[in-house]
Amino acid sequence: MLAGKPLGEIFHKPQLQFEAKVGVKKTTLDGIAKGDLDDSMDTDEKQPMRLRPSSYLVGQQLEDTLLAGEPIEISYPWRDGRIHDWIGAEALWKHALKQLLGNPRAATALVLVTVPHGLSKDESEKITQIFFERFNVPVFALLERPVLGLYASGSVNGLFIDIGYDSTDVVPVLETMPQYTAATHWRFGTRELSVYLASLLKSDSHLLAHEKLSALGEQEKFNALVEIAQELFNHPHSLSLLPEEDEKEKKKGEELDIAAALVSGQEQNLIDEKDAKENNPAASQGRFEVQWRGSTVSVGKIRQRFWEPLFNMNLLKGLKGVDEEQTRVSLPEAIVYTLDQCEIETRQQILNGLVLAGPLAGSKGFSQLLAPHIEPYLSKGDNNELQASASAIKVLKVPDYFADFKKRDDLNTFLGASIVAKITSADHSSFAITKADYNLRGPAVITVTPYLV
After folding, report:
1. Is the dihedral of CA 403, 404, 410, 413 positive or negative?
2. In terms of Cα–Cα distance, which of 408, 278, 275 is closest to 267?
3. For 345, which DSSP code?
4. Mean pLDDT throughout 155-165?
5. Residue 417 — φ and ψ, nearest 5°?
């Protein structure tokens, strides 16, 4: 019991979410290039224009300006798991705090921001400085994603595997301490998986017969298939790593789970949704419908092969849209390399707590598929009783008692931040602001939610 609240209190999924992209009007950029004076400053203090957080359009303001047809340069402050545009990042955080959350500095607010592994001391200090000096928040904390993912799964030891949009991190954690010297970071993510899936979708005749696709040229059609593949990753429940026969067997034993729906009073909506799926001809044929460019398109079972490059990077060779120069490391190779950097007596313990983060965490069958693919790599180790083996692999999931997060392991770092917010907030109103770099329309999304404690 803390702050008058039971530790088992229900946690809720994110209330607010927006794409972490920013835009600057071309007129502003032209003015900066020409050295025009900044009209927002007093006459006797005017200086040449420069980019400020206020120069950026964010959220609905950006969307409205785009719809109006005004020339705008779009950019993404987060790339490859890091901040590359600090002014743009500040504009995004400002939008979250001031517009979406109603300026929490007026209250005693604890603001939590999650960060990926390997953040430098200078980067941590710069983020902290922005929130204290620019936003004037009274209490602030930086939380590391690997630790939060394990918290949400009920562990403090394990291996955190974060497959994002354009990068992947594999981070071992022991007693809540990330082992950074053993961590692996490489340039591979759902961006490359989307290109591979698009190459498979070229054989889906039903999909290609859609009127908006059939009218496109070859390159335009492939680009459209990449967009559709990206949209599928925004619906991880549509994806499965299980072989078709295993998937059928799994569905036989599935029952309507209304625990989360009962919590939120949406049980009838869930039942109606289930009935609609059963009456949907596309669903009955194993197809999945997504929205693309204002239309509904139906994708066949071939989408279930999206995961193949995770275990065989050679499948990406020759595909347009995949950087030939980037390091290609399969997931088992990355895991084993990371394990080899850890003390040998800790490896079994680390393998006993694998946590998958990112959109793939919401797909089915990861644990069943990983063990047979990683076993050949583990068997190459020294013949030592302490050597990790595939039998030690255990993939952790979010516990069922977090009803709102059941089967939503892709939100585990957000749940971990929420748990910390509840436990540490005491007399504060908590705001969990999490960053997750797996939005397929851009490298990152910002997810925020207020927790009034």
Report:
1. negative
2. 275
3. G
4. 91
5. -65, -35
| DSSP structure string for 257-324 | --HHHHHHT-HHHHHHHHHHHHT-HHHHTT-EEEEETTEEEEE-GGGGGTTHHHH-GGGGTT-TTS-T
> In this structure, what are the phi and psi dihedrals at residue 387, rounded to the nearest 5 degrees?
-60, 130
Tokens of 100: 């979406």
Contact between 432 and 421 under an 8 Å Cβ cutoff? The reply is yes
Domain with CATH 3.30.420.40 in the chain: 151-189+326-392
**C-alpha span between 370 and 252 (Å, rounded):** 23
End-to-end CA distance of the chain: 12
The tokens describing 352, both together, are 């006993």
- Give the chain's length: 453
| 87 contacts: CB under 8 Å, gap ≥ 6 | 51, 52, 53, 55, 56
Cα 104 from Cα 433, distance rounded (Å)? 12
How far apart are the C-alpha atoms of 195 and 117, rounded to whole Å? Answer: 26
Helices 190-201 and 218-233, packing angle to 10 deg: 120
Q: Residue 147 above 90 pLDDT? A: yes
DSSP 153: T
Contact indicator for 11, 421 with CB cutoff of 8 Å: no
Q: Do 288 and 303 meet the contact criterion of CB atoms below 8 Å apart? A: yes
Has domain 151-189+326-392 been given CATH number 3.40.50.920? no
pLDDT classification of 195: cutoffs 50, 70, 90: very high
Query: Can you read off the two tokens belonging to residue 241?
Result: 């790593």
Strands 445-451 and 16-19: antiparallel
Q: What is the pLDDT of residues 208-239, one digit of tens each?
A: 999 999 889 999 999 999 999 988 988 888 88
> Which is higher by pLDDT, 173 or 50?
173
Q: What is the C-alpha to C-alpha distance for residues 93 and 103, in angstroms, rounded to an integer?
A: 11
- Name the token pair of 301: 């079972």
